[in-house]
Amino acid sequence: MKIATYNVNGVNGRLPVLLRWLDVAQPDIVCLQELKAPQDKFPEKAIRERGYESIWHGQSRWNGVAILSRVGTIHETRRGLPGDPDDVQSRYIEAAVNGVLIAGLYAPNGNPRPGPKFDFKLRWFDRLLAHLDGLVGMDAPVVIAGDFNIIPSDRDVYVPDRWRDDALFAPEVREAYSRLLGQGWIDALRHEHPGETIYTFWKYLRYAFERDAGLRIDHILLNPVAASRLVTAQVDKAPRSWPKTSDHTPVWIELGDDKRKRRKRSAK
């Protein structure tokens, strides 16, 4: 099963890019972020014509998350994080699909720092940690995918010293990410590529993509059950080079079934 995350930076404005990528990459399940579309403007019909069922949590002009599936019905389990009834931002959606619990998230940016937006980001991550602590130990595979707006370490950013004061690289948010891993979540890309330079986002300015001056802020986290089925984790850089594209690019993993993993182990 191929599971991907993609911050599309406007699902309607970038719809030709998204549909092209779905045709080429053919992921089974996709988490989308930054829809920038109200609930009634999500392009459900166009996505359904590509063979994908979808659920979404929209918001006018900002935020927005969705889950797409071509491998089974999407059984929604949650939209929005618990813990703050006044939080109306569309940043979290969760569903069971084909035996896997999938959560798609779009974390707050937090800039400028310090300030109210950064304080909200820290509170949001506290709520995320509290919720995910109840999911990591499930007997079923759980996949948390999305734009975390966190650069976990120096090796995840081009010229780290330029980002020391940014909310994406602040010690408090890096510590929050470490706390997530401490719960037992596995960073799929780093698990598969422990020493490599890997980016998922490049600004539009100063030919950042062409110079590979990027950040790694789009992550896929796996609970131990899902990690035991991990076959590969990759960044699909091709869509970032397409015309009128997002400043992010897709990240994807492949999960094998139990029988496949047993065969691989016995072959050793």
UniProtKB/TrEMBL annotation:
Site feature: Transition state stabilizer: 149
Residues that coordinate or bind Mg(2+): 7, 34, 147, 149, 247-248
Pfam families on file: Exo_endo_phos (PF03372)
Cofactor: Mg(2+); Mn(2+)
Active-site residue list: 106, 147, 248
A GO molecular-function descriptor: DNA binding
EC nos: 3.1.11.2
Domain Endonuclease/exonuclease/phosphatase: 4-248
Note on cofactor: Probably binds two magnesium or manganese ions per subunit.
Site residues by UniProt (Interaction with DNA substrate): 248
The keyword Hydrolase belongs to this UniProt entry's keyword annotation: yes
Recorded superkingdom: Bacteria
One biological process term in Gene Ontology: DNA repair
Protein name: Exodeoxyribonuclease III
Encoding gene per record: xth
